[in-house]
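Ticket #4471: structure output looks truncated?

Reporter: J.K.
Steps to reproduce: submitted the chain below (75 residues) through the standard prediction queue, then opened the result file.
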Amino acid sequence: MTTYEEAVSAAERLTLAEKARLIEYLSAVMQHDLQAEAYRRMPWDEFIERTAGSLADHPLERPTQLPLEEREPLE
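Returned output as attached by the reporter:
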């Protein structure tokens, strides 16, 4: 039995409310997957144009420099 057939068989045993939750879940997952695929296929310049500034509210910050470890000098 394939994974799809197992999922269909399991879905048939769900209550109506559980089926509705499953549909909501699958819809959200599929929407995410389609958006990710669209970003993978778009030209790089369009990707940059769409994502530029997306971290403006959460800028990247460099952590403080850790102290250098002492090493033996080279001979």
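Triage note (M.O.): checked the attachment and the full token line is present. Residues 39 and 47 are 7 Å apart (CA to CA).
Status: closed, working as intended.
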